[in-house]
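Example 3.2
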Amino acid sequence: MIDYFADIEGLGHEQLVFCHEPSCGYFGLIAIHDTTLGPSLGGTRFWQYTSTAAAVTDALRLARGMTYKAAVAGLNLGGGKSVILGDNKRKDREAIFRAHGKFVETLNGRYITAEDVGTSPADMEYVRRETDHVAGLQGLSGDPSPVTGYGVYMGIKAAAKHRWGSDDLKGKKVLVQGCGKVASFLAGHLRQEGADLIVTDIDADKVKRVVDKCGATAVAPDAIYDQPADIYAPCALGATINDDTLSRLHVEIIAGCANNQLAEERHGEELKAKGMLYAPDYVINSGGLINVYGELEGWTQERSKRKAQEIYDTVLKIFAIAERDGIPSFRAADRAAEERIASVVGLSSLWVGERRA
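Structure, written as tokens:
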């Protein structure tokens, strides 16, 4: 029997909400990890999960990652995530996303949603009809992919600087696993600087678009791990750093936009032992969160992009902590996030006078 309370306790979550609207076949989950720094924010993922247990695991891991991502990025937000179980290519989307919006509204601002894998700004407009607690809307910050891709690009440059003493990527061979929206923007930045790209995706149309746009070389999805290169950029779903791929990857840097890239924490330890430099996922891909936070704060797109540029310095800081403390980079990132959260929890209360009725 699956013990969801044990899962929640193990990762330190505050809340897990199961949602169902039978009229349209909506099944959803909303996970809230930590609201110490502010309301939880995280996108809605629409995916055909193999089981409810797999969806719960994904939602919990992603929500926790959002807490750490916001903390390291210096944003006043907590971490949350929601998933909708089903076929994300279905055309009748209004009822599904309005139902989702109704459940988001019941949380009264503890959770703010936005787009994610399988969803779009247009879907968020349907959510907006039922709740104000949604971002990534058309005409505002909209699609976070450009800012996310730019932030990952800056993180890759920082990793190159740490490993090779220069952040120049000209002539570097980069394996881009996944050709979705963020990966497409990332590939554009890499190609503009003169990097050589090898790309793959389970969707042949997406691969073709990136090949045509960037002059990349395409390989079969499973073959990407066997290509000798300088950098591996995982940009699809998580857990592609695992027992199988670790023995096949021949790169010096792993840095990409996918969430939860390590299948297990021990794989991060193995990367360190193998001498591979790992840019922690939630640090390097925080541009999307920055973009949405900018919308909530009324920032211009240019200001959000400037904030995402700071990912370069943040990644270098994480590497410095890892070297100082003799720990893998993913643990250094966690340490930086946990220290910021603890510093806020530890603030003493101030008397600000009596509130007027």
